[in-house]
Design a protein that fits this description.
about 180 residues, alpha/beta, Rossmann fold, eight-stranded mixed sheet, two-stranded antiparallel sheet, 6 helices
Protein backbone atom coordinates (compact mmCIF):
# COMPACT_ATOMS: atom_id res chain seq x y z
CA UNK A 1 0.00 0.00 0.00
CA UNK A 2 1.44 3.36 -1.04
CA UNK A 3 1.48 6.66 0.82
CA UNK A 4 -2.03 7.53 -0.39
CA UNK A 5 -3.46 4.22 0.77
CA UNK A 6 -1.75 4.46 4.13
CA UNK A 7 -2.85 8.07 4.63
CA UNK A 8 -6.44 7.43 3.62
CA UNK A 9 -6.76 4.14 5.47
CA UNK A 10 -5.29 5.64 8.63
CA UNK A 11 -7.73 8.53 8.31
CA UNK A 12 -10.60 6.17 7.62
CA UNK A 13 -9.81 4.09 10.66
CA UNK A 14 -9.92 7.01 13.06
CA UNK A 15 -12.75 6.07 15.39
CA UNK A 16 -15.54 8.51 16.14
CA UNK A 17 -17.88 6.47 18.31
CA UNK A 18 -19.32 9.18 20.54
CA UNK A 19 -20.77 12.66 20.30
CA UNK A 20 -17.76 13.97 22.23
CA UNK A 21 -15.57 12.95 19.30
CA UNK A 22 -17.55 14.66 16.51
CA UNK A 23 -14.67 17.10 16.06
CA UNK A 24 -12.39 14.14 15.33
CA UNK A 25 -14.83 12.93 12.65
CA UNK A 26 -14.57 16.28 10.88
CA UNK A 27 -10.78 16.35 11.18
CA UNK A 28 -10.79 12.98 9.38
CA UNK A 29 -13.21 14.28 6.74
CA UNK A 30 -11.04 17.39 6.28
CA UNK A 31 -8.02 15.14 5.72
CA UNK A 32 -9.99 13.22 3.11
CA UNK A 33 -10.89 16.48 1.32
CA UNK A 34 -7.21 17.39 1.24
CA UNK A 35 -6.34 13.99 -0.23
CA UNK A 36 -9.17 14.19 -2.75
CA UNK A 37 -7.55 17.41 -3.99
CA UNK A 38 -4.30 15.52 -4.51
CA UNK A 39 -5.73 12.44 -6.23
CA UNK A 40 -8.36 13.82 -8.58
CA UNK A 41 -7.56 15.58 -11.86
CA UNK A 42 -9.63 18.62 -12.86
CA UNK A 43 -10.09 20.00 -16.35
CA UNK A 44 -8.16 23.21 -17.02
CA UNK A 45 -11.46 25.07 -17.26
CA UNK A 46 -12.12 24.38 -13.57
CA UNK A 47 -9.73 27.17 -12.60
CA UNK A 48 -10.17 30.87 -13.23
CA UNK A 49 -6.54 31.28 -14.27
CA UNK A 50 -3.02 29.94 -13.88
CA UNK A 51 -2.57 31.61 -10.50
CA UNK A 52 -6.05 30.80 -9.16
CA UNK A 53 -6.09 28.95 -5.85
CA UNK A 54 -7.52 25.49 -5.32
CA UNK A 55 -10.85 26.27 -3.69
CA UNK A 56 -12.75 24.04 -1.29
CA UNK A 57 -16.24 25.35 -0.60
CA UNK A 58 -18.62 24.39 2.18
CA UNK A 59 -22.28 24.86 1.26
CA UNK A 60 -24.71 25.12 4.18
CA UNK A 61 -24.01 24.78 7.90
CA UNK A 62 -20.26 24.28 8.39
CA UNK A 63 -19.69 21.13 10.49
CA UNK A 64 -15.89 21.43 10.31
CA UNK A 65 -15.35 24.30 12.71
CA UNK A 66 -11.67 25.12 12.20
CA UNK A 67 -10.69 21.57 11.18
CA UNK A 68 -10.73 22.21 7.44
CA UNK A 69 -8.72 25.44 7.70
CA UNK A 70 -6.20 23.71 9.99
CA UNK A 71 -5.86 20.72 7.67
CA UNK A 72 -5.17 22.60 4.43
CA UNK A 73 -3.66 25.77 5.84
CA UNK A 74 -0.24 26.44 4.30
CA UNK A 75 -0.52 23.43 1.98
CA UNK A 76 -0.87 23.27 -1.78
CA UNK A 77 -2.56 21.12 -4.39
CA UNK A 78 0.09 20.94 -7.06
CA UNK A 79 1.29 24.51 -7.42
CA UNK A 80 -1.96 26.06 -6.16
CA UNK A 81 -2.51 27.34 -2.63
CA UNK A 82 -5.72 26.27 -0.92
CA UNK A 83 -8.58 28.65 -0.26
CA UNK A 84 -11.66 27.79 1.83
CA UNK A 85 -15.01 29.47 1.11
CA UNK A 86 -18.25 29.12 3.04
CA UNK A 87 -21.22 29.66 0.74
CA UNK A 88 -24.99 29.58 1.09
CA UNK A 89 -26.17 29.00 -2.51
CA UNK A 90 -25.09 26.80 -5.43
CA UNK A 91 -24.84 29.95 -7.56
CA UNK A 92 -21.80 30.94 -5.47
CA UNK A 93 -19.95 27.70 -6.35
CA UNK A 94 -18.32 28.97 -9.56
CA UNK A 95 -14.80 29.21 -8.09
CA UNK A 96 -15.04 25.85 -6.26
CA UNK A 97 -13.10 22.75 -7.28
CA UNK A 98 -14.43 20.77 -4.29
CA UNK A 99 -17.92 21.52 -3.03
CA UNK A 100 -18.78 19.94 0.31
CA UNK A 101 -22.56 19.94 0.61
CA UNK A 102 -23.45 19.90 4.28
CA UNK A 103 -26.11 17.60 5.68
CA UNK A 104 -28.10 20.77 6.46
CA UNK A 105 -28.81 20.89 2.70
CA UNK A 106 -30.08 17.31 2.34
CA UNK A 107 -33.53 18.40 1.12
CA UNK A 108 -31.95 20.59 -1.58
CA UNK A 109 -29.21 18.19 -2.74
CA UNK A 110 -30.72 17.35 -6.14
CA UNK A 111 -31.41 21.02 -6.91
CA UNK A 112 -27.90 22.03 -5.81
CA UNK A 113 -26.24 19.40 -7.99
CA UNK A 114 -28.43 20.37 -10.96
CA UNK A 115 -27.48 24.06 -10.54
CA UNK A 116 -23.72 23.46 -10.66
CA UNK A 117 -21.55 23.95 -13.74
CA UNK A 118 -21.49 20.82 -15.89
CA UNK A 119 -17.75 20.28 -15.38
CA UNK A 120 -15.01 20.81 -12.87
CA UNK A 121 -16.73 20.52 -9.49
CA UNK A 122 -16.13 17.55 -7.20
CA UNK A 123 -19.27 17.30 -5.10
CA UNK A 124 -18.83 15.73 -1.67
CA UNK A 125 -21.64 15.02 0.77
CA UNK A 126 -22.43 13.13 3.92
CA UNK A 127 -26.07 12.12 3.66
CA UNK A 128 -27.70 8.80 2.78
CA UNK A 129 -28.13 8.49 -0.97
CA UNK A 130 -25.91 11.46 -1.87
CA UNK A 131 -23.78 9.54 -4.39
CA UNK A 132 -26.80 7.72 -5.80
CA UNK A 133 -28.48 11.13 -6.31
CA UNK A 134 -25.61 12.34 -8.50
CA UNK A 135 -22.99 13.49 -6.01
CA UNK A 136 -19.46 12.34 -6.78
CA UNK A 137 -18.24 11.34 -3.29
CA UNK A 138 -20.27 10.59 -0.18
CA UNK A 139 -18.87 10.15 3.32
CA UNK A 140 -20.42 7.35 5.33
CA UNK A 141 -19.89 6.10 8.85
CA UNK A 142 -19.33 2.40 9.45
CA UNK A 143 -18.83 1.20 13.02
CA UNK A 144 -17.48 4.60 14.00
CA UNK A 145 -15.12 4.87 11.02
CA UNK A 146 -15.30 7.37 8.19
CA UNK A 147 -15.59 5.68 4.79
CA UNK A 148 -16.52 7.01 1.36
CA UNK A 149 -18.50 6.07 -1.71
CA UNK A 150 -17.73 7.20 -5.25
CA UNK A 151 -20.13 7.63 -8.13
CA UNK A 152 -17.83 7.24 -11.17
CA UNK A 153 -20.55 8.28 -13.61
CA UNK A 154 -21.05 11.54 -11.75
CA UNK A 155 -17.27 12.07 -11.84
CA UNK A 156 -17.27 11.49 -15.60
CA UNK A 157 -20.13 13.96 -16.06
CA UNK A 158 -18.09 16.53 -14.12
CA UNK A 159 -15.04 15.79 -16.31
CA UNK A 160 -13.03 14.62 -13.28
CA UNK A 161 -10.42 11.85 -13.35
CA UNK A 162 -10.25 9.98 -10.04
CA UNK A 163 -7.05 8.09 -9.31
CA UNK A 164 -7.40 4.31 -9.40
CA UNK A 165 -5.60 4.27 -6.04
CA UNK A 166 -8.36 6.41 -4.55
CA UNK A 167 -11.07 4.31 -6.21
CA UNK A 168 -9.58 1.16 -4.71
CA UNK A 169 -10.40 2.51 -1.24
CA UNK A 170 -13.98 3.48 -2.07
CA UNK A 171 -17.30 1.76 -2.28
CA UNK A 172 -18.43 2.28 -5.89
CA UNK A 173 -22.00 3.56 -6.34
CA UNK A 174 -22.58 4.17 -10.06
CA UNK A 175 -26.00 5.55 -10.90
Amino acid sequence: MGRLGAALVCGALAATPSVSQVADEYHVKAAFLYNFARFVEWPGTAFQGRQAPFTICVLGADPFGGALDETVGGKQAGDRAFRILRISEAAQANPCQILFISSSERKRTAAIIAALPSAGVLTVGETDGFAAAGGVINFTMNEGHVRFQVNRRAAERADLQISSRLLSLAQIVDR
